[in-house]
Design brief:
Length: 636
């Protein structure tokens, strides 16, 4: 009852012309109505996490199932949080449909002034800042639901907002002390000040720890003096608050001084901060990207973010923490593209019938829907776990970012393909989305580096686990249970009997077949990791061809589990879309399990080893020659 009256109040407000509505006050007051403290207190980073759960992906590398993060599919919102966020959906959607013009922003390579104003009024610049600091106090899940809409309509705006709050001032939310939060968050939350994240440098992209910007303590010990330059900084030309990473000399207990990275909050007003012109990019054109230079910038000691020398971890945590937003935003992008493709397929007649009646188009649409579904399952599972207090989610965050950015690329390509010549026209808007999307596989950690990160982080954990097992074997009396479990598993493996953990208890009965395929994939994965570590030991770090394939299997298994979990919930709840979801889930699991087997088989295949060797040789030749090496078939 209460919910209805609130919605009615909201609907009547909706009728006001959006440009005239003080949308932010509408949204903020709705938060207040439904218990400001509830939402604010569950805001992602201003509060202590409630509980710690073990990472599913980390466990996978050790041959263990940590079900608590994945089964059942997490229920991330309280009733109040759900109601609060539902109120945002229509006005935000309406804003993007009626006020913002994504194609115009793209053409202008800037965001229209009234759009910026509207976004600020809506509170879009401080989605996760607590209400105490003038933000909307959204949880990660609530934030995800909003950025999904942004992603559907305008990725350039998504990057402006994301560079500001997902990474630009996220460090203040995560590591800031109360004074830093009180000083900076209120103006950042309402968009009076814009933030940027300054890590990348001309000689330091993926290799983030190799930055050269340097900050040294002033002679009077009151400031750090910062010098250096940063490139490709989103919001770099418009920001006035920067999270900057620089090398600082740190002396250890033995008196040895080495350079270690420290994070700083730098104000443009400190002096010595300047920016280059906006970069001329392929896509996300309306978002500002620029170089930022720091010349003898005096940073007060109060502006050290976290601990001196701990800046690399600050940077990695900010990035880990922001990645779920990409998965959510891109789920929205895919939805938008699928709507366009479905509309075209439903109305376009060729060869005497609507094209959606043809199998070729049906397969495309189904695959687009499937990849969108998997991305959505991963993104919302991840942010729910973050909201529940999980601290160990870096592998899952990397997986979600990789999967969603590649899925979105596929979906954009297929949406254009289904739409034929119409899709190729700029007016369709799909060409812009495709240009916008390309960067998502490159920034916030390239998908290639993140794949290596997934495998190496997982293997490191598995290595530790193996060492513990070795210790246990040395002291069998005290570790009898653990040892028997391992011995049992290995004995079964030797005689070709599966000891795959059953997932039956977690999934809906109609998904049993998918569950056993997933369990088998997980078991094979655990053994493959063990084999890799035994065979290569520490040298596995050098085996990038293998690490890449292992990461592929990890991504697929996480996708299988996330979809199984979500779909089981839908089936158990009797959701209207349950059968549709079951079709998506079954096809995905069937296909992913085949890919997992293939990738794991590659890890020990001699043919694949030969192939990798040949590819190394081909690459060497191309690099030496600076081009392809063979003669032209015509000989000239
Ligand atoms: S911003 C720039 C993005 N740049 C990057 O992402 C850099 C990528 N590089 C790296 O991440 C690191 O350099 C890698 C490690 C991973 C390669 N979590 O020796 P190490 C720990 C936790 O392996 P390295 C942009 O693009 C590790 O365990 N810990 O390090 C703008 C070890 O710890 P310990 C980690 O080989 C985008 C230590 O660090 C992690 O040097 C705009 C050293 O490790 C980790 N991830 O390199 C986006 N990695 O010593 C806008 C390492 O204890 C947002 N460690 O063993 C858009 C959002 C969407 C829209 C929203 C709309 C509102």
């Amino acid at each position: 009852m209460m919910r209805c009256s609130r919605i009615f109040a909201f609907v009547s407000q909706r009728n006001l012309a959006l440009s005239k509505v003080t949308q932010r006050s509408l949204l903020v007051s709705s938060q207040h109505q439904r218990g400001k403290s509830t939402v604010a207190e569950t805001a992602a980073h201003d509060v202590q996490p409630q509980k710690e759960s073990r990472s599913f992906a980390m466990g996978l590398f050790c041959g263990q199932i940590n079900p608590e993060q994945v089964f059942p599919f997490p229920n991330a919102l309280t009733t109040e949080q759900r109601e609060a966020i539902e109120m945002y959906i229509d006005p935000v959607t309406k804003f993007f449909e009626e006020v913002n013009d994504a194609n115009k922003n793209d053409n202008m390579a800037a965001i229209e002034e009234n759009t910026m104003k509207g976004l600020k009024e809506m509170g879009a610049f401080g989605l996760q800042v607590s209400t105490e600091h003038h933000g909307l106090g959204l949880t990660n899940t609530q934030y995800a639901r909003i950025v999904e809409i942004v992603g559907e309509y305008d990725l350039g705006i998504g990057i402006t907002l994301g560079a500001h709050q997902s990474i630009g001032f996220k460090g203040i939310l995560l590591f800031g002390n109360p004074e830093q939060k009180a000083k900076y968050l209120p103006k950042l939350a309402v968009g009076d000040e814009i933030a940027a994240f300054c890590l990348t440098e001309p000689s330091s992209g993926s290799d983030a720890s190799s930055i050269r910007s340097k900050a040294v303590l002033s002679d009077d010990g009151k400031h750090y003096i910062l010098n250096g330059s940063k490139i490709w900084i989103s919001n770099g030309g418009i920001a006035n608050i920067f999270t900057v990473f620089a090398q600082t000399p740190v002396t250890d207990a033995d008196g040895n001084t080495t350079d270690k990275i420290t994070a700083f909050i730098v104000e443009r007003s400190f002096g010595g901060v300047s920016s280059g012109p906006p970069e001329n990019k392929m896509g996300i054109k309306c978002s500002n990207t620029a170089e930022v230079y720091f010349e003898d910038v005096k940073i007060p000691l109060d502006n050290i973010l976290g601990e001196v020398g701990e800046g690399f971890k600050v940077a990695m945590n900010i990035l880990n923490n922001g990645r779920f937003g990409m998965g959510a935003a891109l789920s929205g992008t895919m939805k938008g593209l699928i709507k366009k493709a479905a509309d075209h397929a439903a109305n376009r007649k060729q060869f005497g019938d609507y094209i959606h009646k043809y199998g070729v188009i049906q397969e495309k649409i189904a695959r687009m829907a499937m990849q969108q579904y998997v991305s959505e399952c991963m993104a919302y599972m991840l942010c729910a776990n973050m909201d529940a207090g999980s601290k160990e989610f870096q592998i899952e965050a990397a997986i979600s970012k990789i999967y969603a950015s590649e899925a979105a690329w596929f979906v954009a390509d297929e949406a254009i393909q289904i739409s034929g010549g119409m899709g190729y026209m700029r007016d369709s808007g799909m060409e812009r989305v495709m240009r916008d999307l390309r960067i998502f596989r490159i920034f916030e950690g390239t998908n290639d580096i993140l794949r290596l990160f997934i495998s190496l982080t997982g293997l490191q954990n598995a290595g530790k686990h193996l060492k513990e097992l070795q210790k246990a074997f040395k002291n069998p009396g005290g570790n009898f249970g653990t040892i028997m479990e391992v011995v049992n598993k290995r004995a079964k493996r030797m005689v070709g009997v599966s000891s795959a953990p059953s997932l039956d208890q977690y999934v809906h009965p109609s998904l049993k077949d998918s569950a056993s395929k997933t369990a088998k994939a997980m078991e094979d994965f655990g053994f493959s990791v063990e084999d890799l570590l035994i065979k290569h030991g520490k040298n596995i770090v050098e085996q990038q061809f293998l690490l890449w394939r292992l990461a592929e299997a990890t991504i697929d298994i996480y996708g299988m589990v996330a979809t199984l979990s979500r779909c089981s919930k839908s089936l158990s709840d009797g959701a209207e879309s349950a059968d549709y979801e079951a079709n998506l889930c079954k096809v995905f699991v069937n296909e992913a399990s085949v890919r997992v087997s293939k990738n794991l088989a590659y890890l020990k295949s001699s043919t694949e080893k030969e192939n990798c060797k040949s590819m190394t040789e081909v690459s060497k030749s191309v690099i030496e020659r600076g081009s392809v090496v063979q003669q032209h078939p015509l000989g000239f």
